[in-house]
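quick q for whoever's on today - can somebody do inverse folding on this one?? i tried earlier but teh output was garbage lol. C-alpha cells:
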C-alpha cells in the first residue's frame, strides 16, 4: 500500500534468517470485556430497520487514499441523484442501507457513517489532501529492519492516533446510528483463522467484549494494517465472562460437511473466540482475504435459516429493488517483466505474489456473492408467492400493483478498467498509498462519479425506482 512497501517486502524476506531473534513488536488489546447476558445475533441481524421497497449497499475496496478518493466520487454522485419518495424529492444517498469498507475504503465508510451528508463537505480536505503517512515510520533502512521482522514497522500508537486527531475524534462504535441506515461494516483479516473479520456484534458478543466502547480508529487501522508495515491489531477474548449462547447457525455450519467453506471457517473462527481457544485475535489488512468487503454479506445469506432472511418478513414482502454497488480501486498488472524472458525478480516477485493472492481471493469472493444473491432472490420470490392473502395483509403487502415476483437485484462493480485504455492507465498508475497530490485526488473523485453516472446497470436500477 505504501510507496516503500515493495522494498520492505524484499528486505523482510532477506532479513528473516539473520534477524529472526529480534525483539518482538506487538500491540496491546484495547477492547473491553462485557458481563451479564449477551444476545448473540446472526450476522444478518444487523440489517437496518426501514419500511422502504429499496435496499442499497455499497462496498468500498482497499487501496489507500486512491480507494477513498474514487469511492468519495461515487458518494457525491449518489448525493446528486434525486428520486421521488412518498411525494418528496430526496437524494438517493439517503436510501443507502449498508456501507462496507476495506483498508482505504474503510476510512471513508467510517467517516460517512459518523457524519452522514456532512462528510461530503470536508472529507477531501480533512483526509484526501492530507498526508496520512506523516506519523508513520516507512523509511527503508537497516535500523528499521529489526522492527519489521520483529512484528511490524509501526505499532498502534501511530495510525489510530492520527485518525482520531484528524477524523474520528475518539469516536467509538456507540457513535454509529444503531438500527438506522446506513449500517457500517469495517472489514479486517483474522490471520490465524484465515477468515474475514467483520467489526460487529457477532464477533464481539462471542468474545464477551463490548463493541460499543471500541474505538473506530482502531478498527479502521486494523482494516488497513499492511503486513510488515504494521504490527497486527490485537483483540482479547474473554471466555466465560458473559452468558452468551452462540447463534444456532454456528454449530449447524460446523457440523455440516456440505456447508460452504467460507461459512464453515467463519463459524469455526467465531466459536474459537467464544471458547477461548483463540485468546488473542490478530488482525491485518482486510484485503488479504477479501478486498471488496463482500464476505460479510455472503455469510449473512448463507447462515440464514428462513428464505427471507436477513430481512424481516415485513421488509421481504415490500422490497422491490436491491442494489449492491462495488467500488473497485484495486491494482491492475504493472511492470514490464512480462515482455521479456527473465523476471520477475526481487521486489517484482514479492509484489506479484501478493497481488496474485489478493486478486484471486477477491474474484472468488465476488463470484460467491453473486451466486448466493441470485439464489436468495429465488427463495424470496417463492416465499412471497406462497403467502396467503391474510398473510400478505398482516405483513403490509398485497396492495394495488404488488406482485409476488417483483423483486430484482442489481450487483455491479465499477472500476478503472471500465474507462478507455488511456484514462484507465492514468488512474491505475496512481499509487495505493495514504499520501497523494491534489491533482491525483481530484482525478479519482471525478472518475468515481463518472463511473457510476455512465454505468448501464446503475441506470437500469434508477429507472426501476
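ok took a stab at it. sequence:
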Amino acid at each position: 500500500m505504501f510507496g516503500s512497501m515493495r522494498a520492505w517486502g524484499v528486505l523482510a524476506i532477506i532479513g528473516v534468517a539473520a534477524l529472526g531473534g529480534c525483539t518482538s513488536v506487538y500491540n496491546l488489546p484495547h477492547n473491553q470485556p462485557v458481563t451479564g447476558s449477551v444476545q448473540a445475533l446472526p450476522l444478518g441481524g444487523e440489517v437496518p430497520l426501514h419500511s422502504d421497497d429499496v435496499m442499497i449497499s455499497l462496498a468500498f475496496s482497499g487501496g489507500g487514499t486512491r480507494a477513498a478518493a474514487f469511492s468519495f466520487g461515487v458518494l457525491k454522485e449518489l448525493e446528486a441523484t434525486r428520486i421521488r419518495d412518498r411525494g418528496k424529492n430526496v437524494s438517493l444517498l439517503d436510501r443507502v442501507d449498508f456501507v462496507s469498507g476495506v483498508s482505504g475504503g474503510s476510512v471513508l465508510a467510517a467517516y460517512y457513517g459518523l457524519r452522514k451528508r456532512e462528510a461530503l463537505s470536508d472529507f477531501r480536505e480533512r483526509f484526501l489532501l492530507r498526508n496520512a503517512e506523516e506519523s508513520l515510520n516507512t523509511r527503508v533502512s537497516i535500523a528499521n529492519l529489526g522492527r519489521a521482522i520483529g512484528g511490524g514497522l509501526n505499532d498502534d500508537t501511530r495510525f489510530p492516533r492520527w485518525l482520531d486527531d484528524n477524523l474520528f475524534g475518539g469516536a467509538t462504535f456507540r457513535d454509529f446510528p444503531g438500527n438506522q441506515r446506513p449500517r457500517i461494516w469495517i472489514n479486517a483479516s483474522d490471520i490465524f483463522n484465515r477468515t474475514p473479520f467483520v467489526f460487529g456484534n457477532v464477533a464481539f458478543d462471542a468474545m464477551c467484549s463490548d463493541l460499543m466502547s471500541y474505538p473506530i480508529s482502531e478498527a479502521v487501522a486494523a482494516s488497513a494494517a499492511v503486513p510488515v508495515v504494521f504490527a497486527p491489531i490485537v483483540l482479547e477474548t474473554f471466555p466465560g465472562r458473559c452468558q452468551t449462547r452462540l447463534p444456532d447457525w454456528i454449530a449447524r455450519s460446523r457440523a455440516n460437511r456440505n456447508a460452504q467453506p467460507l461459512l464453515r471457517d467463519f463459524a469455526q473462527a467465531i466459536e474459537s473466540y467464544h471458547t477461548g481457544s483463540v485468546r488473542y485475535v490478530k488482525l491485518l489488512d482486510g484485503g488479504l482475504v477479501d478486498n471488496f468487503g463482500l464476505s460479510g454479506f455472503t455469510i449473512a445469506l448463507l447462515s440464514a435459516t428462513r428464505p427471507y432472511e436477513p430481512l424481516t418478513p415485513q421488509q421481504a414482502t415490500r422490497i422491490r429493488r436491491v442494489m449492491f454497488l462495488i467500488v473497485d480501486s484495486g491494482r491492475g498488472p504493472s511492470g514490464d517483466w512480462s515482455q521479456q524472458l527473465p523476471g520477475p525478480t526481487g521486489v517484482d516477485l514479492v509484489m506479484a505474489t501478493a497481488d496474485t493472492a489478493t486478486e484471486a481471493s477477491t474474484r472468488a469472493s465476488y463470484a460467491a456473492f453473486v451466486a448466493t444473491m441470485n439464489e436468495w432472490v429465488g427463495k424470496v420470490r417463492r416465499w412471497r408467492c406462497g403467502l396467503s392473502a391474510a398473510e400478505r395483509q398482516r405483513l403490509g403487502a398485497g396492495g394495488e400493483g404488488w406482485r409476488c415476483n417483483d423483486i430484482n437485484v442489481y450487483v455491479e462493480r465499477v472500476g478503472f478498467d471500465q474507462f478507455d485504455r488511456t484514462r484507465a492507465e492514468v488512474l491505475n498508475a496512481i499509487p495505493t498509498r495514504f499520501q497523494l497530490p491534489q491533482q491525483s485526488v481530484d482525478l479519482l473523485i471525478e472518475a468515481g462519479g463518472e463511473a457510476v453516472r455512465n454505468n448501464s446497470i446503475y441506470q437500469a436500477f434508477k429507472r426501476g425506482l
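fwiw The mean pLDDT is 87. also The radius of gyration is 22 Å. so keep that in mind when u check it
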